[in-house]
Amino acid sequence: MKKIHDAGFLCEHDLDQGTTMNKKIRNAQLSQYNFIFVVGEKEVANKTANVRTRDNKIHGEHSIDHIVSRFQYFNDSKAIDAEEIF
């Protein structure tokens, strides 16, 4: 998350231990975040994140460096369909 933030993109995290992962994902969808990163133990070990959109389209597991490079591409190209083409 720090790498994404340091690259100039806004991001928030939900570290509440009392909330299930499904509830956290649902809350992010309702908050209308364009991209939702799901990070569990496996993703932490692999330094990756599972990428989803607010429409519950799952793009799969990607490295943080790949995510940052895709975001920079979307920003530079002013892509309006970034959620679809991730």
Word description of this protein:
One of its GO terms (molecular function) is threonine-tRNA ligase activity. It comes from Lymnaea stagnalis (Great pond snail). Keywords: Protein biosynthesis. Residues 2-71 form the Anticodon-binding domain. It holds the Pfam family HGTP_anticodon. Helix content is 45%, strand content 19%. Strands 1-2-3 form a 3-stranded antiparallel beta sheet. The two termini are 18 Å apart. The protein is an alpha+beta fold and 86 residues long. The relative contact order is 0.16. The radius of gyration is 13 Å and the shape is globular. The chain has helices at residues 2-6, 21-30, 41-46, 64-77, 82-85; strands at 35-38, 48-53, 58-63. Strand 2 (48-53) and strand 3 form a beta hairpin. The protein has 5 helices and 3 strands, in the order ααβαββαα.
Bin the strand percentage. Answer: 15-25%
| Average pLDDT, all residues | 91
The H-and-E topology, N to C, reads as: HHEHEEHH
**What's the β-strand tally?**
3
Helical coverage, percent range: 40-55%
- Largest sheet descriptor: 3 strands, antiparallel
Give start-end ranges of low-pLDDT stretches: none
**Could you give the distance between the termini?**
18 Å
Helix/strand class? alpha+beta
Radius of gyration: 13 Å
What is the approximate shape?
Answer: globular
Q: Name the strands of the widest sheet in spatial order.
A: 1-2-3
Summed up, the helix count is 5
